[in-house]
Amino acid sequence: LGARVRGVAFERSASGEPSLPDRATNFSIAHTHGLALIAISGAGPIGIDVEKVRTVRMPALRRAPIEVEAIRLADGAALGGHDADTRFLRAWVRIEAVAKARGTGVGPLLETVRPRSAASGASAPDAVAPESGAAIMAHDLATAPGTFAAVAFAGARPPPPLVVFPAGAEAIEALAGPK
User: Fold this and answer.
1) Are strands 11-12 and 18-19 parallel, antiparallel or unpaired?
2) Cβ contacts of 21 within 8 Å, gap of 6 or more
3) What's the pLDDT at 116?
4) DSSP classification of residue 43
5) Distance (Å, rounded) from C-alpha 126 to C-alpha 105?
6) The pTM is what?
7) What is d(CA 152, CA 28) in angstroms, rounded to the nearest whole number?
8) Chain center to CA of 163
9) Which position has the higher pLDDT, 91 or 156?
10) pLDDT digits (tens, 9 = 90+) for 2-43
11) Rounded to whole angstroms, how far apart are CA atoms 145 and 172?
12) How far is the C-alpha of 109 from the C-alpha of 107, rounded, in Å?
């Protein structure tokens, strides 16, 4: 973003999410076990998430509506994968990315797809209400094997390419541009 934001202090929302004071630039950060992703947008809210392959201990009854919602949030894109954990982790990064882009956190989104007991009078998960304006959609990102990532933003455009952030101080300074 260059010199215009260098040294600018972050603001924090009531939920603790950082933002830049100008609000014209949005960003999202995700990390897991030695890997981090940063998404930056000048075209509205953006969310990103990343997970590494692992065993997920969650009953199928709870997984199923999350996976259905993740497919809906990605405009019907299948989750794919050869096992239940792969499918669920792909679903999870989509859900988390959309929640971050919406600025709500993942809790409210998960609550909308929570299976209801027969005693409560509802057996199917509730549908998520559409956002006002252009819908925020999830897009899978091509990552290294064993890693799942998604980015979410409004509008019908392809996701941006992943760019590897340089590891050395000199290369980071070159990327950051003149002071």
Assistant:
1) antiparallel
2) 8, 9, 11
3) 65
4) S
5) 18
6) 0.81
7) 10
8) 17
9) 91
10) 677 778 888 887 777 788 887 778 889 999 988 889 998 888
11) 26
12) 5
